[in-house]
TrEMBL record:
Keywords: Oxidoreductase. One of its GO terms (molecular function) is oxidoreductase activity. Coiled coil: none annotated. GO terms for cellular component: cytosol. Residues 15-308 form the NADP-dependent oxidoreductase domain. The keyword Lipoprotein does not apply. This is Predicted oxidoreductase.
């Protein structure tokens, strides 16, 4: 497995990161068997994935806890990236959130501690200062951000504190960060960790029409505002989304690489991308996704994928919030 050296840190992360959200089931994901979750995490490690992304918000600590149970014995061999929620960005609350994370993770340090979403109510420089103090105290090894748009990235830069990464929604069906966030991250040398890299399963080709996508997963701006759990006010672009999926499917057939793996490999070719954080609900899915680390794409195929997905990129525009019209990515 290829690795990537995160700036302002001594962290060498695997370019495929295992995402520990869906393994708690519940909101967005439905029922989940705990044995599958533990097997998924262990399989990721066996396949050479050394970096694991989690958050207190995933099942109120349940995800962090599963990770500790599955790989507690391998603590020194893995990199744990966890997140603090925006309600905890006051310095004192951030310290408490970090302690809760350490307890859930049954460890005495978090490798990469990330701010989950911007919180314009709390001065960012104060929160970054608190992260630096946690680092100085050895509680965390490095810090990063997530869902940070241009304005928040500017503030990070002005504050003088050095962030090691920005975690953003990025995949072939959602290229919004390419408009202005990715260019800024490249210029500021803040590598991107891509979340939802297979668009929550859509890029495996397993849903052939919008009707097949369950409501809790059809919350994204690709789908109409009429979907029961939608939090946006848009008509969506369901037909275009599924036309785009069909085109990617065709290209993946020609290349004889699965759609999911072509999608993951495409991301890892993008300038400014350090890693793709991919979820998997059982060992079989994880094994399939890990195989993408072996995939190389010809430049002509990369260009064809760019072209095939451009109309959808244009239809969804530069709002990098997957779920809301009133963008929280600021
Ligand atoms: N920072 C943030 O705000 C943020 C937001 C979202 C996610 N994340 C992080 O990014 C990670 C990944 O994102 P994500 O979970 O939203 O989406 P994803 O990785 O694009 O999709 C994962 C889902 O796709 C399905 N799947 C995975 N592999 C498959 C395969 N080989 N064949 C068929 N289906 C497959 C599984 O769900 P089913 O089997 O149920 O279809 C799985 O849960 C999360 O775990 C989390 O760590 C961060």
């Amino acid at each position: 497995m290829e690795t990537y050296q995160l700036p302002h840190s001594d962290l060498e992360i695997s370019r495929l990161i295992f995402g520990c959200w869906a393994i708690v089931g519940g909101f967005n994901w439905g029922p989940q068997d705990e044995r599958d979750s533990l097997a998924a995490i262990k399989t990721a490690f066996d396949q050479g994935i050394t970096t694991f992304d989690t958050a207190e918000a995933y099942g109120a600590g349940a995800s962090e806890n599963l990770l500790a149970r599955a790989l507690g014995e391998k603590r020194k061999e893995i990199i744990i990236a966890s997140k603090a929620g925006p309600a905890d960005f006051e310095p004192e609350n951030l310290r408490k959130a970090c302690e809760r994370g350490l307890k859930n993770l049954k460890t005495d340090y978090i490798d990469l501690y990330q701010l989950h979403w911007p919180n314009p109510e709390i001065p960012l420089a104060d929160t970054l200062g608190a992260l630096q103090e946690l680092r100085d105290a050895g509680k965390i090894r490095a810090y990063g951000v997530s869902n940070f748009g241009n304005q928040s990235l500017d503030t990070c830069k002005e504050s003088g504190f050095n962030i090691s990464s920005n975690q953003m929604a990025y995949n072939l069906l959602f290229r919004a960060i390419e408009y202005s966030i990715l260019p800024q991250c490249i210029a500021d040398e803040v590598p991107i960790l891509c979340y939802s890299p297979i668009m929550q399963g859509l890029l495996t080709g397993k849903f052939t029409s919008e009707m097949e996508v369950p409501d809790d997963r059809a919350r994204t701006r690709h789908f109409t505002k009429e979907r029961s759990q939608s939090r946006h006010q848009e008509d969506g672009c369901e037909a275009l989304t599924f036309q785009t999926i069909a085109k990617i499917k065709e290209l993946s057939k020609e290349a004889e690489v699965s759609m999911g793996n072509i999608s993951l490999a495409w991301l890892l070719y993008q300038q400014g991308v350090a890693a793709a954080i991919v979820g998997g609900r059982n060992a079989a899915q994880v094994r399939k996704n890990a195989a993408s680390a072996q995939v190389t794409l010809r430049p002509a195929l990369i260009n064809a994928l760019d072209e095939a997905t451009r109309p959808l990129k244009e239809a969804l525009g530069p709002n990098a919030d997957l779920w809301q019209t009133d963008s929280r990515v600021i």
